[in-house]
Amino acid sequence: MATVQASYMSGLLVGSLIMGQLSDRFGRRTMCVMCAGAVAVVGISAAFVETYIQFLALRFIIAVLCAGLMVISFVLEVLTTRSLFTGAELQPRLQTLTYM
């Protein structure tokens, strides 16, 4: 069981390092949709593997894709929020939230 967790954590590390660069090259929304679709396909495939090594490899791939989803969706959310609220517009709204 520890090997499965180590494989997953290694995939998160690798995905965090490479998915940001891939999303800059191919587009954030495109990569987000591709990662979500690939996670679904690989996740279902992981249920039907026959060997332990195949399962470890698929868990690693799932982790790479999940890290990509986390990184890309965070950046998309920050960019969307930042474009909606500039500094002058954000301060009164924050004051209203802290007053409540």
Describe this structure in words.
- The protein has helices at 2-26, 28-46, 52-84, 87-99.
- The longest helix has 33 residues, at 52-84.
- The chain is elongated.
- It has one domain.
- The protein is an all-alpha fold and 100 residues long.
- The N and C termini lie far apart (47 Å).
- Helix 1 runs antiparallel to helix 2, helix 1 (2-26) crosses helix 3 and helix 2 (28-46) runs antiparallel to helix 3 (52-84).
- The mean pLDDT is 85.
- It is found in: Membrane.
- This is Solute carrier family 22 member 6-B.
- InterPro entries: MFS, MFS_dom, MFS_trans_sf, Sugar_transporter_CS.
- GO terms for molecular function: transmembrane transporter activity.
List keywords for this structure.
elongated, 100 residues, single chain, 90% helix
Short description:
This protein is an all-alpha fold.
Topology overview:
Elements: H1 2-26, H2 28-46, H3 52-84, H4 87-99
Helix pairs in contact: 1-2, 1-3, 2-3
Rg (CA only) = 18 Å
Order of helices and strands: HHHH
Helix content: over 70%
> Could you tell me the number of beta strands?
0
Cα shape: elongated
Poorly predicted runs: none
Main beta sheet: strand number and arrangement?
A: none
What structural class should be given to the helix and strand makeup? mainly alpha
Query: How many helical stretches?
Result: 4
Strand content: under 5%
Q: Span from first to last CA?
A: 47 Å
On the 0 to 100 scale, the average pLDDT is 85
Count up the domains.
Answer: 1
